[in-house]
Write a structure and sequence with these properties.
Layout (H helix, E strand, L loop, with lengths): L8 E11 L2 E11 L4 E6 L5 H8 L7 E6 L2 E2 L5 H5 L2 E4 L8 E2 H6 L7 H10 L3 H5 L8 E2 L8 H15 L3 E5 L7 H15 L3 E5 L3 H6 L2 E6 L2 E6 L5
Parallel strand pairs: 3-10, 3-11, 6-9, 9-10
Antiparallel strand pairs: 1-2, 1-4, 4-5, 7-8, 11-12
Helix pairs in contact: 4-6, 6-7
The structure holds adenosine-5'-triphosphate and magnesium ion.
């Protein structure tokens, strides 16, 4: 199992292929210090999701190693990884149940107070309170009680409550109104504070604020640096 981690992440000369002879990553080396945010950018098929897949250990590399705090992920169980590496996916996962249950997912021991605090911190509390039954409002997996922006804020509240040391975020591309957009930006800052993060970034504002912007092309890193450097 993985001990309590600080959140240093290293990709050490990673080669990966889904199909033999067709490498999706061709020698990726990347060092990320505890608390840093990395924006992964690049054209479709450049390898952004593949990097995330390896960090989540959905796959193991063909060559090279992925390390967290110097520990090879091959030596770590998926379960112990899950508790410290959190994921917020693009098509934000909402299940049928109350808003409260949806936020609490992954932290079943959380108190009502903790749930409200998390929602407040990511600007989700006000819209939740405007729903017919507040935190007890029932939502459906494929229902449309919630807008895309609201779903995103809800998933942020869930992630904040789970409080992983390393957070992976596949930013939604859906167009969102300006007001919600601002709320999301602000919430993102709160959510990322003090943890290591990897973001497949689509918003310019997110890219601008990243500590390290990593530009991928055909499975290699072609450029990296912060917004001022690139
Ligand atoms: P996008 O912006 O479209 O999400 P991406 O940068 O996330 O693109 P990846 O999904 O990492 O790109 O894909 C990298 C390469 O791996 C591509 O050539 C892609 O076709 C291939 N690939 C991705 N997933 C699979 C899979 N499950 N099986 C086979 N090949 C795959
Ligand atoms: Mg992708």
């Amino acid at each position: 199992t993985l001990p309590d981690i600080r959140g240093d992440v290293t990709f050490d000369n990673i080669v990966f292929e889904y199909e033999k002879g067709r490498p999706a990553l061709k020698g990726i080396s990347l060092e990320v210090k505890e608390g840093q945010s990395v924006a992964l950018v690049g054209h479709t098929g450049s390898g952004k999701s593949t990097i995330i897949n390896l960090l989540c250990r959905f796959y193991d590399p063909v060559e090279g190693r992925v390390l967290i705090d110097g520990i090879d992920l091959r030596d770590v169980t998926i379960d112990s990884l899950r508790s410290q590496v959190g994921i917020v996916m693009q098509d934000t996962f909402i299940f049928s149940g109350t808003i409260r249950d949806n936020i609490r997912y992954g932290r079943l021991d959380a108190t009502d107070e903790e749930i409200v605090l998390a929602a407040q911190a990511v600007n989700a509390h006000d819209f939740i309170m405007s729903l017919p039954d507040g935190y007890d409002t029932e939502v459906q997996e494929r229902g449309n009680v919630l807008s895309m922006g609201q779903r995103q804020l809800l998933s942020f509240a869930r992630a904040l409550l789970a409080d992983p040391r390393v957070l992976i975020l596949d930013e939604a591309t859906a167009s969102i109104d300006t007001e919600t957009e601002l709320k999301i930006q602000e919430a993102l800052k709160t959510l990322l504070f003090g943890r290591t993060s990897f973001i497949i970034a689509h918003r310019l504002s997110t890219i601008r604020h990243a500590d390290n912007i990593v530009v991928l092309d055909h499975g290699t890193i072609v450029e990296q640096g912060n917004h001022d450097e690139l």
